[in-house]
Amino acid sequence: MGIGNKIREARLRKGLTQEQLAKLVGVRQTAIGNYENNTSHPKVDILYQLMQVLGVDANYIFQDKMNEMKVKLSAPSDTLSVNEKSLVRTYRQCSPVGKQKISSYSQKILDVEKEEDEVDRLMPIAAHNDDMSPEQIELMKQDLEDL
């Protein structure tokens, strides 16, 4: 079941037609039909109005999507640390605008990390590198003497 099915289910529970719901929300009847058929999804402001008119909350509307996410997150290959679970919980409590900002910021961080990895990969190893073992230092000294 998707978002559209949840909208239809709540509309029928309220005893409303698509046309009646459309008037209450301020959209065309065809828009309601498209939402219910998952042809399109309501914008955030329309979604809020739908939830208010239908007397449901986001948990109800997105229940099936959240269950899908739980299944994916609970897969053995996708184990999360305690810190990661806390971050996911915090993210879920954010408004749609907050979630968008977090997603945008996260992408910027990933882009910076990728650039840093590229720079590190291209950096030459200096002769005075402190990470060199005593054996490497001896080999370098021999190489210099051979010149």
From TrEMBL:
Keywords: DNA-binding
Listed InterPro entries: Cro/C1-type_HTH, Lambda_DNA-bd_dom_sf
Keyword DNA-binding: yes
All residue ranges annotated as the HTH cro/C1-type domain in the record: 7-61
Molecular function GO labels: DNA binding
Keyword Electron transport: no
Protein name as it appears in the record: Helix-turn-helix transcriptional regulator
